[in-house]
Amino acid sequence: MTADTAPTGRGPRGKNLTLLTASTAMDNAESSVTSVLFPLMREAMGLSSSALGTLVAVAKVVGMFAGIPWVLLARRFRRKVVLAVCSGFWGVWILLAAMAGDFTQFVVLYGIAAAGFAGAGPIALEILGDLYEDKRRGRVTGMLYGGVALITGVSAPLFGRLSGLENGWRYGYLASGVMCLIVGVLVLVFLDDPRPATARPLPGAAAIEDKARTVRSGLRELAGIRTFRLVLLQRLCSGQNVMMSFGVVFLVEDRGFSTATASVVALPFALGYLGGTLVGGRVNDHVHQLRPLSGRVVMLQISQLAFAGVALICVQTPSHSIGFFITVFAVLGFLQGQVPVVNRPLIMAVVRPELRALAFAVSVSTVEAFAYAGYALLTGILGDAIGLGNALLIVTVLLTAFNGLASAALYRPYARDSTALLKMSGKDTPTTDAQKDIPAVP
């Protein structure tokens, strides 16, 4: 089997899924190190809570602009080579960040590193979409993001143990950078790319003009898909991600735990996320088969509203028991795990295969990154002003509840757009009576 031949067996597919999971996890690993070890950085450099928001915001804003260029490179060169560079070998910038002399220097190097990791998600998801058919995408997407969460959750408590060492945060980033380099080598050597390599780059100005036309035409087509536009709005209003970014700091500042103790919630969150993606992926596929025109949107709403409810319990319960927060973060992780196994297959169902990488670059690396950056910055500022508990109440609880209700606007457009794509590809359209039961848009 060549690298450009689609794998057919469980073994090759499992190997590829593992490598795609590892490459996608690199960006999350950096976020994990930052959220867990930030109290140490804050003490060493004399920072405030808003500095964490600045770090997260810088990384996500840089990723907004870097995602699409990586996708263009993946169109011109072998995707696995580009993936190995942006998710693996780019880790050298994390190694440099670990040796930064001050916070400004660290932010610059951390931002450069984020520019590389931004390309991993869209490229990995495009390859995943090529490897698996529509009826299985929910569960395999769940396995991918569940694996990402497990890697992040296991590594976070280990990084937390570094809190007992002087400059422990530096050791955490050094270890993370080395992990990136190892993943880059494994992807380059072992990943099978099911799509043949595209034509060689055109020389000079012709190449630039051709790339610009490709992006413009692709963006115009994506903008014409109403479901995709609504998904972008839905992701723009998503404040869920900041819960884990600020969770450890919240427990340290508002509940009085040590960094090492507070960091243990990352593992139950990750295990809950893993369970949420695996269970949620299978349930999503089952619900989608029963109600192909509305099931995914139903699952999306349920997960968001439930997350808002549990997040409310987390930030409003004045408990000082780490056992309580371990349980709460496990449930939050389970509910957060529902989002990608619904959102990613939902996009795949309405976007042509040739445009999926661009669609994920726009939705994940650009819009989600922009929202994450803005809400992280807002949470940090509000945290300094009114406390992290109140900041999380506004950004995660209230905003997520509103987002869950507003997602009802997706029902009718998704039914129409997914059916249109099936007809375009020559596949059978859904034959169930789900369409007549689609709830009216409020």
Would you mind describing this structure in some detail?
It is a single chain. The chain has 442 residues and is an all-alpha fold. It is built from 19 helices and no strands. The protein has helices spanning 10-45, 49-76, 79-87, 92-98, 103-117, 120-131, 137-160, 168-190, 204-223, 226-236, 242-253, 259-262, 266-290, 295-316, 322-336, 338-348, 356-386, 388-406, 411-425. Helix 7 (137-160) runs antiparallel to helix 13 (266-290). The N and C termini lie far apart (52 Å). Residues 1-10, 197-209 and 433-442 have low confidence and may be disordered.
Can you give keywords for this protein?
442 residues, mainly alpha, disordered N terminus
Blueprint (SSEs and pairs):
Blueprint: H1 10-45, H2 49-76, H3 79-87, H4 92-98, H5 103-117, H6 120-131, H7 137-160, H8 168-190, H9 204-223, H10 226-236, H11 242-253, H12 259-262, H13 266-290, H14 295-316, H15 322-336, H16 338-348, H17 356-386, H18 388-406, H19 411-425
Helix pairs in contact: 1-2, 1-6, 1-7, 1-8, 1-11, 2-3, 2-5, 2-17, 3-6, 3-8, 4-5, 4-8, 6-17, 7-13, 7-16, 10-17, 11-18, 13-15, 13-16, 14-15, 14-16, 14-18, 17-18
According to DSSP, the number of beta strands is 0
The outline comes out as globular
> What is the N-to-C order of secondary-structure elements (H for helix, E for strand)?
HHHHHHHHHHHHHHHHHHH
| Helix/strand class | mainly alpha
Quickly count the helices. Answer: 19
Question: What's the gist of this structure?
Answer:
With 442 residues, this protein is an all-alpha fold.
